Amino acid sequence: MRGTGNTHYGDFQNGDLAGLYDRHHAGLFRFAFRLTGNASDAEELVQECFLSLLKPGASYDPEKGPADRYLLGVVRNLARKRLRQRESFMAEPPEEASTSNPESIAVHAQTADAVAAAIAALPVAQREVLILSFYHQNSIAEIAAVTGIDSDAVKSRLYRARTTLKSLLAHYAPLKEASK
Amino acid sequence: MTDAELDRLLDTWQTPEPSPSMRQSALPQVQALRRWPWAVAAACLALAAVFGFMTLNDLPVAQFAGSPAPGLHARVTVFVEPSAQTLYWSWRTGAAGSMGNGRLVRFVYDRVSKTYSSYQLNFTPIGPGLWSMTADASEQTFAKATPRLDLSRYRHIPARLPQVGRVAAGDTVEVELLAGLAPSDRFRETVEFSATPLSLAAPPDSPAREHAEMRVAEPRVEIAGRIVHQDGGIYTGQTIQLDSSVEGTYVLAIDPKGNSNFVEAGFAEGALVEFRAGSRWFRIVSSAPVAAGGRRTVYLLHRPSQGRAAGLPEQFSVSSSGPASLF
To answer: In whole angstroms, what is the distance from residue B169 CA to residue B314 CA?
Structure first.
C-alpha cells in the first residue's frame, strides 16, 4: 500500500471515512485476495476491517504509525481468523491432493496459477510476510509492525518463503527464460 | 533459480480489482454504523451471512417439510445455539432426512469429528387427528439414510429424543443432536406438526447472499429423464451436493468463489438445475426458484467415490454446504 500517502487515523476520526475507504480499500483488497485466494473473501474481509474500526474497543494510536499499516494489520488478523476456520473445516480432507506437493502444483497450465498455488501452499506466517514484502513493497520494519513480530523473524520467514517458492516453482523458471 | 527469476514469476500473479459494488454496499453500511455503533455486532453477523447461512437470532440453519403419515404434516427446523456459531457448524456438518410411510428419519453428521446423530420418529394413528409417536435413536436410522458414508469411520452420538407418547396438530417436539460434541454449542431441531402442509421460512433478503446462494426445495433428481431420487427436504447453501453411492459427490455452485477446481457444467434457471457430469446429464427439479438473477451458470466439482458399492443399485441423496472456496 505504498504510494497512498501517510494517511492517519485522524482522517477517520475527523469524519473522512469515505476518503479513508477510497484511499485504502483497493490495496487492502489486493492484500486480502492474496492471503485468501478468493475475491469474495477479500471483499468481505475489507468490509469487516472498516466495520471493526467502529467497534467500541477498537483503538489506534497515530503515534505508532500511519493508518494504512494499521488497516493491513486488521485485515491480516481477520484473514488469519478466517483461514483458521477453513483449516479446521478441512482438517481431514479425504480426497484432495495436497497443494504443497510440487508435482501437483506443476500441473497448472498457467504460470500465474502456479505462482498463486505455490504461495497458497506456504504456511500463512510466511505467506503474509512474502505478500507484504513483494506485492506491497513494505520494508522489514513495516512488516514487523503489521505482523507484530520482530525484524529478525520477518527476515527469517521471508527467506524461508522465497526458498520454498524457488523449489515449488523450479519448473517455471526455464519457461520464463525461454519466452524472453 | 535466482532471486530475479523468482521475482519475475511472482510478478505474473495479478489480482482482480475490487468490484464497484463493494464500495456501494460497504460505505453506507459503515457510515450508518458510525451513527449507530450499537449495530456493529448485527452488521458483522450480516456480513457472515454472505457465506450462505443464516446467523441471526432464531433463524434456522435449514428447514425440511413433508408428510410423515397420511393427514399429518411436519416441519423440521434446525438451529444452532449460540446463533453466532451457526456459520461454523454449517460448514462442518451435513444433514438429510426423509418422511413417509409413518416415519420421519433425520440424521446430522460432522465431517471433522466423524460423528453423527440420527433419529427416527414413528407415527401410528390412534384417533381423529391423533397419533402415537415412538422415537428411535439407534445407529441403524443413519445407515438407511446415508448410503455413501462409510459408517465404520463415524462415531455415533445418540440423539436426545422427546418423551412424547402422542402428538396432534399444533404440537412441537425438540430433538438435540451431536450432544456434547462442543462444550458450549448446541445443535437442535424442532419438529412441528400440523394437519395441513407447513410452509418454509423465506430466505433473508441479502443481495450478496442471494448472489451466491442456491436453494433446492423438495428436489426431484433425474438422469436423462429417469427419476433417480426424490425427497421433501429444503437445502439452502452456497453449494448443493448430490451424493451418489457409486460415483461420489457432485458439488454444485453458482459462484465458484475463484476455486479453479470447479468447472462450468450447466445452468440454474427458475426452479431447475441442469448439469453434465461425465457422460450423464442431470436435472434437479425444485419446487421453488433455485437461484436469484435469472439464468445462472452452474459450476461443478466432482469428488469421485473412494469405495464403490459394486453390484448395488446407485442411490442418491441431496445436501447443502458452505461456499465453493472451502472445497
So the answer is: 37
Grouping H, G, I as helix, E, B as strand and the rest as coil, residue B255 is: coil
Range with the lowest mean pLDDT among A127-136, B7-16, B149-158, B220-229?
A: B149-158
Rounded to two decimals, the pTM is 0.40
For B211, name the nearest residue in chain A, comparing CA atoms only: A40
Rounded CA-CA distance B317/B298 in Å is: 19
Among the listed ranges A122-131, B179-188, B281-290, which one has the minimum average pLDDT value? B179-188
Nearest residue, CB atoms, A21 vs list B8, B23, B50: B23
d(CA A162, CA A174): 17
Q: What is the rounded average pLDDT of the residues B283-287?
A: 92
The verdict on a CB contact (< 8 Å) between B29 and A51 is yes
Decide if B12 touches A, using CB distance below 8 A.
Answer: yes
What is the phi/psi pair of residue B36, to 5°? -130, 75
